[in-house]
């Protein structure tokens, strides 16, 4: 059945980490050429929209930018995020059934606190889009399925304490690839335990394996969670020709995955095989979202023999299924073991910004709460930039005790010990700093 599908393109001609960097404008230019060559925009049910521009208010619903937005965010980041927001608006107002934001630079490695760029990312596009949708349209339960080859560690960080966001990441095992995280026992914070699900797959996983993980793990959990909206972080670097990863997915496989997942919104993330993969993958995804035939989508160098999956990988994925459902089905009991009953829980992280070559130390405290996601207090220090900030996040749907705790923490913090102090109040759409 055909669907009305919206497309938003933004290749960001004026933004590149370096002229030969894999994350550059050609990633989208070849795709645009393929879309025009296939005549996709001639179909009545496929429509292109121009991207908008994200505002500071949009960004501050999610991020604490240090020292500020102007210092670390490029105009292209604002338009890329604006393209995602445009796609969301078109879906939420029912102008289209679904939409695909083909924009760059990518964003799923961006954490809640941002001191610079890491993993080619500065702003987390999907997270900003999620909070925009919740603020404007009141959607509560949202699922993000990240199919990028690299673990979406930034998205995981942002939604770690959010019980209303199911974050599932399908990626190459972090023991073999950046950012070295995304293991099956990373399950979320004390107030959202179980809503973070990581599915690390071995190098050389083929189409058979990806679709097994989708059908046997992702779809049953989605059916139980019952989200109001599904978002695909549509990274395409699982392709067999990608120069910086080690997987064996195909353009046809991506189209089948998208057809079965049926996301309301898709956002382009990684994928660096600029000529031999991206044009075919994106065309297949667009046709799948539009409910059209994609059986002819095939790479010129496709070799069926190379797509035969080794038995040991199949066995590994079967064990991954068992482990995932053990965690999912016993998440309430496991939560009590991982997070003993106490008022506050803490976690610490060291974050490396590989693009900028700086390091951040995070010490985070969350209030344990049965009624909401819990207020989060973040002490973030980056000695390389001489910034030391305190960030307080009051969650959406905050209960009164969590709101009071967050406001008290912000009011009592003083400049001197910190270079900046922030309050992010999701319910009141309020962002303060001192």
From TrEMBL:
Named from the GO MF annotations, one term is: histone deacetylase activity
Task: Tell me where in this chain the Histone deacetylase domain is found.
Answer: 74-276
Could you tell me which CDD domains the record lists for this protein? HDAC_classII
Per the record, the GO terms for biological process are:
epigenetic regulation of gene expression
Q: Name one Pfam family in it.
A: Hist_deacetyl
Q: Which InterPro entries match?
A: HDACs, His_deacetylse_dom, His_deacetylse_dom_sf, Ureohydrolase_dom_sf
Q: What SUPFAM superfamilies does this protein map onto?
A: Arginase/deacetylase (SSF52768)
Family of the protein in this entry: Belongs to the histone deacetylase family.
User: What protein name is recorded for this chain?
Assistant: Deacetylase
């Amino acid at each position: 059945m055909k669907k009305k599908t919206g497309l938003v393109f933004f290749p960001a001609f004026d933004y590149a980490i370096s002229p030969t960097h894999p994350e550059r404008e050609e990633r989208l230019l070849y795709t645009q050429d393929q879309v025009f060559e296939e005549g996709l925009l001639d179909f009545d049910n496929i429509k292109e929209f121009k991207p908008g521009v994200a505002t500071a208010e949009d960004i501050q619903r999610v991020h604490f930018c240090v020292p500020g937005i102007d210092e670390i965010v490029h105009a292209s980041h604002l338009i890329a995020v604006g393209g995602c927001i445009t796609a969301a608006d078109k879906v939420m107002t029912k102008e289209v059934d679904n939409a695909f934001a083909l924009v760059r630079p990518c964003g799923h490695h961006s954490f809640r606190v941002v001191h610079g760029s890491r993993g080619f990312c500065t702003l987390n596009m999907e997270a900003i889009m999620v909070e925009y949708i919740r603020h404007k349209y009141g959607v509560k339960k949202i699922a993000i399925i990240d199919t990028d080859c690299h673990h979406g560690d930034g998205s995981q960080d942002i939604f770690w304490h959010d019980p209303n966001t199911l974050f599932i990441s399908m990626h190459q095992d972090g023991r073999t690839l950046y950012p070295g995280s995304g293991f099956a026992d990373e399950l979320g914070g004390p107030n959202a335990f179980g809503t973070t699900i990581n599915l690390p797959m071995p190098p050389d996983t083929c189409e058979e394996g990806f679709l097994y993980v989708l059908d046997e793990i992702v779809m049953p959990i989605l059916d139980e969670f019952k989200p109001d909206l599904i978002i695909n972080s549509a990274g395409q670097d699982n392709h067999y020709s990608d120069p910086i990863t080690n997987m064996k997915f195909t353009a046809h496989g991506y189209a089948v995955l998208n057809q079965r997942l049926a996301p309301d919104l898709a956002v382009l993330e990684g994928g660096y095989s600029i000529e031999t993969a991206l044009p075919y993958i994106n065309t297949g995804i667009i046709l799948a979202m539009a409910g059209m035939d994609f059986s002819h989508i095939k790479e010129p160098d496709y070799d069926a023999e190379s797509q035969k999956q080794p038995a040991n990988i199949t066995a590994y994925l079967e064990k991954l299924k068992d482990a995932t459902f053990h965690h999912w089905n016993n998440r309430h009991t496991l939560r009590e073991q991982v997070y003993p009953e106490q008022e506050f829980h803490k976690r610490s992280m060291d974050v490396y910004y590989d693009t900028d070559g700086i390091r951040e130390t995070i010490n985070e405290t969350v209030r344990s709460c049965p009624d909401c996601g819990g207020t989060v207090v973040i002490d973030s220090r980056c000695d390389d930039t001489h910034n030391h900030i305190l960030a307080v996040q009051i969650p959406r749907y905050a209960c009164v005790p969590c709101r009071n705790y967050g406001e008290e923490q912000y009011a009592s913090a003083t400049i001197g010990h910190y270079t900046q102090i922030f309050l992010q109040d999701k319910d009141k759409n309020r962002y303060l700093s001192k």
